[in-house]
Amino acid sequence: MKGLALILALLLAVPVWAVEPARLDPGGSALVATGRGWGGPKPLELRLALTRPVPFRAYLVADPMRLVVDLQGADLGLARPQDLFGADLAPAIRWGRDRPGWSRVVVELPGPYRIDRAGQRAGPAAAQITVALAPVDPDDFAPRASATAALRGLPEPADIPQPAPDDRFTVMLDPGHGGFDPGASAEGESEANLVLVFALELRAALQARGVDVQMTRQDDRFVALERRVTAARQKRSDLFISLHADALPQGQAAGATVYVWNPAADSRAAEQLTLRHGRDDLLAGTDLTGRDDALTGALMDFARTDTQPRSESFARWLTSRMALLGIGMHGRPVQGATYSVLKSPDIPSVLLELGFISDYDDRANILDPQWRERMVRVIAEAIVGWARDEAVRASMLRQ
Predict the structure, then answer these.
(1) What does the alpha-carbon distance between residue 314 and residue 230 come to, in Å, rounded to a whole number?
(2) Domains within the chain, CATH numbers bracketed
(3) What is the DSSP letter of 28?
(4) Which of 75, 108, 115, 259 is at a distance of 20 to 30 A from 274, taking alpha carbons?
């Protein structure tokens, strides 16, 4: 008993970070410009999203000018620094393990800076480290004395293999409504037409980035709700995005909103799908023909234990980029819902309300080619970043 008590005491004495490191959330991390440079470097802010708070320190070094952030008990994973949102604002970004128990992030700076502020905001299940940099005159740049020691032992970034050309990431875009179902309407504009125009523009942007894009409709035709999900499954889609621009009574809602499946409704969805679909259409790669309803529902619930967190992860990628590029969002930008197009248990799925055409500003945005171009860029970058994060996740599961 004394030996057991000693072991328990030693385990309790081990710091939490030594047992379960904090992990970097690439979707919530970014390097952003917070102002204009007026002919010189712009003010910058480095944001590192982690699964929990960790001790950290931030300092500047010279030759060349760099920001160094040391993190204790953090695992930066296999995400590539060059994929960080806003990485093009810096000449180079590197990160990796340093000495045991520590990781390091190094940002080469486009000019002389000072650390204006550095802090960490912690929540119950996440944390964000923010380091704000203000440009200064070269004479006011005050780095640490030992620049070479700051970078000692920093590994090269991990080389993540790219998917083969025949195994491209596939996105199913679902412009809502169509045909005899125009959706919402306001001031002579129909939801069905607006989201179709947007979907075609988004398809072009994604194809330019090497993404395989499928669409539930490419013209003004009606597609049944359940058929939209089936089409995504037939194309072996990796992500399903349904696009809408609804109308609500004035003053009730405005701004973009991302919906994910509400897990509390899983059992009801299982019952509905079991009755309304052919059983071999419920789960990709699993023939449920001849199975009873209880087993079908259990298999669907099991599948959602993987797809639901992935859907929520993409929603975070998307809303974080909308926030960074100043896209107006609903007060609760991510919400749960029981929409039919979110019911797929085997494909990460979201429904994106671009805005509400009943709102004057939202309608003006959706009709504005410049706003749509900005929104398309936000969504395309979120998809590409999330897809790479998914590839890393999959490679780690295979190990």
Answers:
(1) 21
(2) 19-150 (2.60.40.3500), 167-398 (3.40.630.40)
(3) G
(4) 259
